[in-house]
Amino acid sequence: MSFDYKRIEPSIVELAQLCERESSWRQENILFDCILELNSDRKKRLQEFKKDWDKRSYYIFNDPVAYQNFANISGSCSEKHLGARIEFDDLISGPGILTPRPLILTNNHLNYLLTKLTFPGLVDVRRQWAAFPWVVQDYDNHHWYQMSFLAQLLSEFYFPSHPYCGHSFNDDLQSIKNPIRIGSTQWKKKFLEDKFEEIVDAERRNEPAGRHNFYPKFTYRNRTIKTLNAYYDDVNFTDVMQFHNQDELSRLKSWMCRRLHFVVPVGGDIPIRFYDSIITGGIPLIPLAMKKSLDYYNVPREFYLCFDLEDLFNPTKLANAAIEQYYASGKEGILERVRYGLDALHVDCAIREILDVIDAEIN
């Protein structure tokens, strides 16, 4: 299969159409030169966008039915962020008279659009919003490589969430930026700030919590959770959507009543429940393999404990050590974890960092 690259308009839409027609956008080895050509006029497009951008203003894609936890992001933006929700129907109908701003999505939203619209429909939407830089934060760059590639291809700014995980299909792709942590997405930041004293003073149980969503293809992760479940009833699988259907207060109470939280990732990724554990004052118990990613984000090491394979067969020893650490840090330790969580581990912080990168590059 050969391509006449000279006939390719260096735009996202042309490239996406070519991928669909010629290679179903999966054959990444064929796309390298196309991607480089696409990025050749990226600076020009961003310079055009710069003329009308009001710094700190953005749009955020919102689908509260399919992604309730992400819907909270649009409702949790700090007042200094000028964020406006873009509903699914709004996205389909086009920007109209809206002033171009960055459009922030996750890889899940991109998949949602792809599923609803099919690839040609997604291309049409991208064409309508060509003047709006697409910003994708990839929550699943540790395993969903196909969607990661599509996100890199369609965005002006692509942010993986997990360092040392996954890979880009071309290191020269200009959309790819340094990783930015996801952060806690369950609660609005203002809500947590209002409940600050309740979180710090909450009555807590020693038995670790750890209810995870069940993903059939991650067998090692599932076996790990089942092994821990033999010791702790609340380290188990759960219906995530049922949990997210609860109101914010009910969800908060279920987290702040525990001192310890087991966190079992797919690989070296950082699950959102790690951030939820700290922001609600608890201590997360994590696999040793996760530590490298946490060091990348400079998360204080005293805020969590690591376990290895041997610990899985005697988790009570690890839990007892964590309880000792919890009591040793005292109320001051809870205060430090919650405040650090609000200052650095909430999704508002991720949006702020994303906007900083956009502003620095454009200006």
Describe what this molecule looks like in 3D.
The chain folds into two domains: 5-182 and 348-362, Response regulator (Rossmann fold, 3-Layer(aba) Sandwich), CATH 3.40.50; 189-345, Rossmann fold, CATH 3.40.50. β8, α13 (272-279) and β9 (283-287) form a beta-alpha-beta unit. It is α/β, with parallel strands linked by helices and 363 residues long. Strands 2-1-3-4-5 form a five-stranded parallel β-sheet, sandwiched between helices. A three-stranded parallel β-sheet has the order 8-9-10. A two-stranded parallel ribbon has the order 6-7. The longest helix is centred in the C-terminal third of the chain and has 30 residues, at 315-344. It has 17 helices and ten strands. The radius of gyration is 22 Å and the shape is globular. It starts with 11 loop residues before the first helix and ends with a helix.
Attribute tags:
10 strands, 363 residues, 12% strand, Rossmann fold, alpha/beta, 50% helix, 17 helices, five-stranded parallel β-sheet, globular, three-stranded parallel β-sheet, 2 domains
